[in-house]
């Protein structure tokens, strides 16, 4: 017999960025909120304290701060014809766990989407005709505009102390920022961070090629800062332990640093760590959630009744919970029906490395997660898709989150993998090389989707989430085009050697190699309940007292990192809950 | 290819006397480069420090 807890107004599943934002906004509105987090409670002290946190073997190899895949994971395959097998070691993407979630170990790149990213499908149709979009490519417009989200992009940047430079301010272009961005209502809360050598060289090469480089918006504070909630940040000290680690210095924005100090003091808010949610409970008609069932820290099955259920887990696990709980109809790629699992997409990441002689002090061990430089001349409307031969652009950037030697030292082409020549090769490369990356968009397709695995189960007896994903020709062509442009740009800098990893024709997705944690889609937002799981307020079409904020809502992924967009969407959904849903619970959009 | 024992902090049993770090010029667990981000004309000057606070 399960333990039954007293009913609350809202239960939140997962305490990362989306959970923390929802908890803040809903307790502001006077709701009693319980948050259930599967992992441990974590905070800067003691979990991310120096020197313990900067152990590279524990952080980047043993993955101390990431989700353990021993209890819950996914299975993966390339096509519907293949058997999926479990993802047992962290490779391609890194889901977080614990309080703060992936928001503790992210790097800090904090972009807004471009205006045209929101109406991708209709924009392409208008520019190139309907036939230009390949058969089977299921890209869709977001059911809202840049202007709808602008106040929320702005607020989230101020919560995060984002450091950057506006390129378009109240409609006027200003020098130093991104000239192609949507208009901002205010300048960034903090100025850009200082440049390490690789970023400085990026500006030089990009300008010489005629591009318009600008500082990557980084939620790594360039100066001391107090956010609108009164939470404090200190200036980033370029420690080099950013991606994979919680910040030792209160410099990288995270739920723990930027929101939880306020939440933890609130009587209306209760956080239960080590609380593994198993499913959302629905009424017999499957149109109303009654709460969730979870295992508490001692493994006891516990029921938490609630009027409102907010799925704030990592994008993949939001989809998993919806499928396990029977919220909405599972996607069937053969019949092209159903919604949950549809439009899974990813990110098209590629790298080029530049090697110099020992007079060039690149010092890759100096690191800042989000800091660096990029440009949008090959992204959004700047890309001529007809000429380039693919849909969805991307950005090229200089980034340097900090490279310790165990994470791997890329050596120049021709260096062997052993012996004294290898030693000489890593010695030559370690302080005297840097890299640029291409981060391309990833379109959605009928054949790339999520569902429940028929064979493998997790430690709690539930079917694992199954990912069916492979690269399509469009993304391979994008990789080759963008890496080609990046290599061209590198030549301006006269490196001693150069290596690049554009995808080859016919290349398959390799889940064992780290690429990007930007897993998107699966429970997407849209205007049609037949092709989307969520409406424009991230509310389930089928069970209106369930909301599922996260990158799961993206109909496809653009060339940017998702966190800025995810945060803005969550504030947008929270506003709708506060101003509309609480007064009149029920569907916020009628079709 | 990763070389965990060779490059890890000495507390894990490898990288004796931080010799692998010294070979490549890695400052180890200093984790503060505030004053060195914009220096271009000279190599980073300090030897490594490990988690136990020993200097290499």
Overview of this protein structure:
The complex is a heterodimer of chains A (591) and B (56). With 591 residues, chain A is α/β, with parallel strands linked by helices. Chain A has one domain: FAD/NAD(P)-binding domain (3-Layer(bba) Sandwich), CATH 3.50.50. In chain A, 23% of the residues lie in helices and 20% in strands. The two termini of chain A are 41 Å apart. With 56 residues, chain B is mainly α. Chain B contains two helices and no strands. Chains A and B meet through helix 3 and helix 12 of A and helix 2 of B.
Would you kindly provide a brief summary of this structure?
By secondary structure, chain A is α/β, with parallel strands linked by helices. Chain A has 14 helices and 24 strands. Chain A has a single domain, classed as FAD/NAD(P)-binding domain (3-Layer(bba) Sandwich).
Please outline the helices and strands.
The complex is a heterodimer of chains A (591) and B (56).
Chain A: E1 3-4, E2 8-13, H1 17-28, E3 33-36, H2 44-47, H3 56-61, E4 74-77, E5 85-86, H4 102-105, H5 120-128, H6 146-160, E6 168-169, E7 172-173, H7 197-208, E8 214-215, E9 225-226, E10 232-233, H8 255-258, H9 260-263, E11 269-272, E12 276-282, E13 289-295, E14 301-311, H10 315-325, E15 342-345, E16 348-355, E17 368-375, H11 385-388, E18 394-400, H12 419-430, E19 433-440, E20 449-457, E21 463-468, H13 473-491, E22 497-500, E23 520-522, E24 546-547, H14 563-581
Parallel strand pairs in A: 1-14, 2-3, 2-14, 3-11, 4-21, 14-24
Antiparallel strand pairs in A: 4-5, 6-7, 8-17, 9-10, 12-13, 13-14, 15-23, 16-19, 16-22, 17-18, 18-19, 20-21
Chain B: H1 4-7, H2 19-24
């Amino acid at each position: 017999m399960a333990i039954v807890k007293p009913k609350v107004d809202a239960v939140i599943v997962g305490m990362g960025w989306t959970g923390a934002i929802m908890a803040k906004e809903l307790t502001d509105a006077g709701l009693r909120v319980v948050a259930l987090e599967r992992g441990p409670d974590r905070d800067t002290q003691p979990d991310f304290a120096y020197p313990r946190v900067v152990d590279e073997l524990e952080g980047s190899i043993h993955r101390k701060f990431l989700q353990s895949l021993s209890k819950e994971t996914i299975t993966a395959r390339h096509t519907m014809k293949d058997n999926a097998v479990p993802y047992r070691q962290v490779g391609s993407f890194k889901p977080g766990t614990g309080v703060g979630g992936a928001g503790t170990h992210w790097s800090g790149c904090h972009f807004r989407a471009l205006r045209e990213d929101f109406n991708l499908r209709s924009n392409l149709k208008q520019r190139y005709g309907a036939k230009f979009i390949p058969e089977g490519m299921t890209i869709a417009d977001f059911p809202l505009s840049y202007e709808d989200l602008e106040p929320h992009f702005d607020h989230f940047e101020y919560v995060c102390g984002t450091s950057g430079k506006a390129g378009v301010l109240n409609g006027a272009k200003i020098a130093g920022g991104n000239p192609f961005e949507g208009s901002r209502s205010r300048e960034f809360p903090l100025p850009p961070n200082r440049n390490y050598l690789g970023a400085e060289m990026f500006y030089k090469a990009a300008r010489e090629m005629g591009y318009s480089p600008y500082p990557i918006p980084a939620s790594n504070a360039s100066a001391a800062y107090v956010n609108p909630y009164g939470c404090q940040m200190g200036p980033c000290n370029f420690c080099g332990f950013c991606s994979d680690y919680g910040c030792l210095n209160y410099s990288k924005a995270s739920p723990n640093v930027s929101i939880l100090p306020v939440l933890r003091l609130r009587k209306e808010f209760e956080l239960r760590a080590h609380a593994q949610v198993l499913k959302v409970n629905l009424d017999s008609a499957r149109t109303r959630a009654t709460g969730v069932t979870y295992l508490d820290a001692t493994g006891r099955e516990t029921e938490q009744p609630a009027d409102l259920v907010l799925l704030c887990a990592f994008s993949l696990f939001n989809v998993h919970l919806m499928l396990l709980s029977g919220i909405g109809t599972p996607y069937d790629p053969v019949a092209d029906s159903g919604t949950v699992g549809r439009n899974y997409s990813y990110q098209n990441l590629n790298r080029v490395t530049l090697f110099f002689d020992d007079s060039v002090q690149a010092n890759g061990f100096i690191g800042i997660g989000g800091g660096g430089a990029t440009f949008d001349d090959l992204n959004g409307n700047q890309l001529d898709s007809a000429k380039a031969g693919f849909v969805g652009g991307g950005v090229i950037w200089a980034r340097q989150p900090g490279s310790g030697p165990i994470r791997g030292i890329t050596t120049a082409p021709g260096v062997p993998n052993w012996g004294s020549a290898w030693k000489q090769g890593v010695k030559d490369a370690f302080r005297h090389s840097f890299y640029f990356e291409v981060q391309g968009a990833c379109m959605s397709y009928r054949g790339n989707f999520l569902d429940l695995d028929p064979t493998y189960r997790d430690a709690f007896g539930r079917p694992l989430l199954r990912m069916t994903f492979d690269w399509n020709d469009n993304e391979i062509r994008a990789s080759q085009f963008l890496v080609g442009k990046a290599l061209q740009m590198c030549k301006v800098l006269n490196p001693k050697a150069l290596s690049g990893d554009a995808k080859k024709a016919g290349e398959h997705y390799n889940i064992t190699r780290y690429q990007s944690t930007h897993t998107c889609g699966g429970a997407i937002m849209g205007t049609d309940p037949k092709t989307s799981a969520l409406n424009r307020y991230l509310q389930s079409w089928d069970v209106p007292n369930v909301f599922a904020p996260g990158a799961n809502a993206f109909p496809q992924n653009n060339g940017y990192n998702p966190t800025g967009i995810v945060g803005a969407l969550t504030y947008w959904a929270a506003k709708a809950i506060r101003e509309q849903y609480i007064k009149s619970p029920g569907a916020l959009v009628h079709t | 290819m990763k070389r965990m024992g060779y490059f890890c902090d000495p507390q894990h049993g490898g990288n004796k006397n931080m010799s692998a770090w010294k070979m490549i010029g890695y400052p180890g667990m200093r984790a503060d480069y505030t004053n060195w981000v914009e220096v271009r004309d000279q190599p980073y000057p300090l030897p490594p420090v490990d988690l136990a606070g020993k200097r290499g």
